[in-house]
Amino acid sequence: MKVLLATSKPFALPAVQGIQHIIESAGHQFVKLEKYEEESQLLDAVKDADALIIRSDIVNKEAMKAAPNLKIVVRAGAGYDNVDLEAATDCGICVMNTPGQNANAVAELVFGMMIYAQRNRFDGSVGHELIRKRLGLYAFGSVAKMVAKIARGFDMPVYAYSPILTHDDLRKEGEYGVIPADSSEELFRNSDFISLHMPLLDDTRRCVNYSLLSLTPQDGFLINTARKELVDEDDLIRIMEERPAFQYATDVKPDKHDEFLQKFPKRYFTTPKKLGAQTAEANKNAGLAAANQIVAFFRDGDECFRVNQ
Description:
Helices cover about 35% and strands about 15% of the residues.
């Protein structure tokens, strides 16, 4: 089988070498397309591929139609909204992600941004500490669990709400010591910091709106390392205009970035590009997991991490 690694934003070299070793040791052919700039380059490279490993690269209907042999696409990372799942199902293609492999990297970034903002960007002025501040986790997947684990070291009470988990489910995660919230409203009301960790779905798009944000303390803090579309940007701007101490830190640059920057230069921070998984360790973990999943798929028919129907 021909396995294509297609990454416009390449993996670190040790990750690429590890992926190649896993693929070739299993008897498959390994090829790579890195730092490509045009969709046509991907369409040409994928035309005879049986498997595809990507990062945040777009795999749409056109890409799948250009790849008649394609049987599996693995997104090296947790989010997979860059892959057209419906088109993949129609084409008989299995789509997988690699949940948990970059969880620690993203969780550390959450705390890096919180500390940076609470210490006034290290400008020498008097800031604030995180200890005993209430942290709310909106969704409770792999990244949120790592955030909860780190928060214990700061002695932060951690609240969690998940639309797909019950109180009992959350209580069973005893090692993380979270306090279950009955609703998103209760979560926002009881948290000094809110960290977003849900995937982008039809019912999560702009789910963080004025009605939720208005429940937070006057000096509330929203952290987004998930997807920009989860936040209603107009509503967030309204809250920040009304509340001179409210802060927003994000790893996904908003559509209204310029307006945020102009109006709230000291209360708004965004990374220059999505950095959550941009560590050598996360690169390697996600890449090797993707390669191993492809090998298991062809060898055993293993679809454990399938995300489409």
